[in-house]
Amino acid sequence: MSEAIAYYPGCSGLGTSKEYDASTRAVCRTLGLDLVDIPDWSCCGSTPAHTKDHVLSAALSARNLQLVSGMGIASAATPCPSCLTNLRTANHRMEAPAMAEKVNKLLDAPYAGGVEAISVLQALVEKVGLDEIKAAVRTPLTGLKVACYYGCIMNRPPELMAFDDCENPMAMDNVLSAMGATVVPFPLKVECCGASYGIPRQDIVARLTGKLLDVAKSVGADMVAVACPLCQMNLDLRQGQVNRALGTNFRIPVPYFTQLMGVALNVADEELGFGQLCIDPRPVLNKALSGADAQAKGA
Amino acid sequence: MQTINLTRDYDGDFVHRVEEESGQNVSLCYQCGNCTAGCPYTFAYDIPVSQIMRLVQAGQKKTVLSSKSIWLCATCESCTTRCPNQIDVACVMDVLRHMARREGLAAVPQVKTFWDSFLDSVKAHGRVFELGLTVNYVMRTGRFWTDLDLGPKIFPKGKLSLKPHEIAGKEHVARIFERFERESNS
Ligand code: SF4
Ligand code: SF4
């Protein structure tokens, strides 16, 4: 049992990435990682806030860091890389007293610093540890070929994110291989998927996401595991748009890494929300697992 | 190809403001082009990011702040990560958008409208209301919703809540915005 960590789901966790939130909670519970909800958390402002003003952006994040500090907890974990960037940036910028003063002027209750924000992936790797994660596996993902896609901001810039390698991150690869999956080398691990331009500029997402799917297919991945709600939405929900724009025929499931962990840890199917993805990964998953099973029996 | 006379229109105050607001020394840029090479959006930009850096050094305020590129940058942090001179290029791009806003410029208006709709939603509810944001954006741009095809995929999943998640502290969040607006106008 580890120390308690405050949990910041991010707005998409209540909507478009419900299954990421649900599978994260279930996996952490199974592994004994105690996630405590932050009462009345608010939006971090995401990309729109930092593109408008850095003080406003830091204030929207700092309100939440202040709430965590009031809970007497020193670290907060979030599944969403965009929230993570904003929370970490607010901490970093507020180290400068002049900036902290400007930000605190916008808040009802000032934030004095001292709450570290990390990703759920980092919490799993550092607070639970790969050995313990591996020991908890009940249904190994043997035979499943996965490309791990981290998205552009999970590890960049390295000075700010301070976790894993910025060009070739391995944390998710290590976790999923501990689950028994075969991780395939995926050269576009940190390339951008088109971010939130799907609404104002669909053509951009089609091109960037199309490239990711194309390379995932060419390296022989059965599916692409992701850690970001926006990446998931572009690669899965918009896969049909990509196919129409590029004349391709992709049909690649794009589960969250926590959903795959859930399968290996024997978390109940209802808690993993596979049915909420556009392309349900379960048929491919079951085929890979039963193929490996048959091979094991035949040998 | 556009030709720009770099000695004309040099605006030293602009260079100084960019450096101050971003905390970056833009004169360190020696035009290696690493940022442009790794930028996933170069194909969509009107001015590649390394040229934006050069134009900032040359004080070309109007050209830079009227560019489409500053509105298409996704803050993917590739440039910042790979710049050999440790310039936080993504932060410079962010600051250029802040300045363009203040000058009333937005060369890709639908991107600005989308971001504004998002922030309005946060201001009103404390958290972003995904469906409300989309409807608001479509109404404000008067555009046909290019994502109509996604409706049948997403609605049956029960993911898009039809009403916002109001939080108890939403007035607190609204006050953050109000104080910010007051500070920026003073
Ligand atoms: S990578 Fe850095 S030094 Fe090279 S062109 Fe870009 S900003 Fe200039
Ligand atoms: S942060 Fe912006 S300018 Fe830099 S590489 Fe990414 S999209 Fe291009």
Task: Describe the structure in your own words.
The complex is a heterodimer of chains A (299) and B (186). Chain A has 299 residues and is α/β, with parallel strands linked by helices. Chain A has two domains: 4-121, Glutathione S-transferase Yfyf (Class Pi), Chain A, domain 2, CATH 1.20.1050.140; 139-298, Rossmann fold (3-Layer(aba) Sandwich). In chain A, 49% of the residues lie in helices and 8% in strands. Chain A contains 14 helices and seven strands. Chain A has helices at residues 18-30, 46-52, 54-70, 81-93, 97-106, 120-128, 130-135, 158-161, 171-178, 202-218, 229-237, 239-246, 257-264, 282-298; strands at residues 5-7, 35-37, 75-78, 116-119, 145-149, 182-183, 223-226. In chain A, the strands form two sheets. A four-stranded parallel β-sheet of chain A has the order 2-1-3-4. In chain A, strand 1 (5-7), helix 1 and strand 2 form a beta-alpha-beta unit. In chain A, helix 2 (46-52) packs across helix 3 and helix 3 (54-70) crosses helix 4. The radius of gyration of chain A is 19 Å and the shape is globular. By secondary structure, chain B is mainly α. Chain B has two domains: 12-102, no CATH class; 109-185, no CATH class. Chain B has helices at 12-22, 34-38, 49-57, 61-65, 69-72, 78-82, 89-102, 109-125, 130-141, 151-154, 170-185. In chain B, helix 1 (12-22) crosses helix 7 (89-102). Chain B is globular and about 55 Å long. The model of chain B has no long low-confidence stretch (mean pLDDT 87). The interface between A and B is large, with 59 and 59 residues. The structure holds iron/sulfur cluster (2 copies). Residues 35, 38-39, 41, 49, 73-79, 89-90, 93 of chain B line the site of one iron/sulfur cluster.
